[in-house]
Amino acid sequence: MRAERFTGTDLAQVSERARSVLGEDALILHGRANRDGGLASVEVLAATPVTVARARARLDALPLPPVFRRDDGRPYVIALVGPTGSGKTTTAAKLAVRPEMFPGAQPGLLTIDTYRVGGMEQLATYADLAAIPFEVAYDQREVPAAMQRLAATCDVILVDTPGRSPASAALTERWRTLLDAVRPDEVHLVLPATLRHDLAHHFVEQYRPARGHCGASHLLLTKLDEVPEASGVTELALAVGLPTRWVGDGQEVPADLKAAVPRLMGTFGIPVDTEPGWVRK
């Protein structure tokens, strides 16, 4: 989001100057006091309401469907993809075990991540504790049967995928074919908020739809609690350019999962209580 910085020796004076440049309705996003060589100064970050609204629109995702099952009985499928260590498995568990996440719907979990030691067992434990249907598919051939078993009782299926960044054309094709087999309605690219912007763009390119294969449709940032400069997280989300529904800001399951837009816009000082409820966003 493009915002302008104004500096001076007095907060009221600096804020007034920001409004004289940007308009009376300018929003003061941040203000801080600096001291350089014993001289005190004040800095504010300001933007117009139009700029803020455009940033919010770029982040906002379409609402989830009011009815998850399709007319043919097929559940709504949400896949989580991304690099190793980004938090896909923990995020899948947060989504599955939080009752208000998909109101009136029975979630189910499918993992096709059979590479990482302990990952499958971790998800199975959460599923068992919350009495959530859980399936494992070891290869593409096992996906249809696993999906069919889940569809018997589940309205939403959350899919955890291998956290292996494709390094060759063959691996890329194999990964995309496996993802295509689950026929996801949404594909959330899970990236840690600590990631450098250039690496984030690298992963966006890797997981982009290609040659008829599905790819990332949403961004899901995790580990917001590990970022010292909160506004940088929002800048990262805006730079990626994908709509974002949820963000993760800790390891606690299921508490540390938030609605993305209120959480991200809040880093610019936009009051969270001005945003709509997050459950269906």
Low-confidence stretches: 274-281
Largest sheet: 6 strands, parallel
Topology, number of strands: 11
Query: Would you tell me which CATH topology of the largest domain applies?
Result: Rossmann fold
**Main sheet strand line-up:** 6-5-7-4-8-9
- Gyration radius, to the nearest Å? 21 Å
Describe the structure.
A 6-stranded parallel β-sheet has the order 6-5-7-4-8-9, sandwiched between helices. Strands 1-3-2 form a 3-stranded antiparallel β-sheet. It has helices spanning 11-22, 49-59, 88-97, 119-129, 143-151, 169-181, 197-206, 230-240, 260-266; strands at residues 4-8, 27-36, 39-47, 76-81, 107-111, 134-136, 156-160, 186-192, 218-222, 246-248, 257-259. Helix 4 links the parallel strand 5 (107-111) and strand 6. It has 2 domains: 4-47; 59-274, 3-Layer(aba) Sandwich (Rossmann fold). It contains 9 helices and 11 strands. The model is unreliable at 274-281 (pLDDT under 50). With 281 residues, the chain is of the alpha/beta class.
Give the helices and strands, then pairings.
Elements: E1 4-8, H1 11-22, E2 27-36, E3 39-47, H2 49-59, E4 76-81, H3 88-97, E5 107-111, H4 119-129, E6 134-136, H5 143-151, E7 156-160, H6 169-181, E8 186-192, H7 197-206, E9 218-222, H8 230-240, E10 246-248, E11 257-259, H9 260-266
Parallel strand pairs: 4-7, 4-8, 5-6, 5-7, 8-9
Antiparallel strand pairs: 1-3, 2-3, 10-11
Helix pairs in contact: 3-4
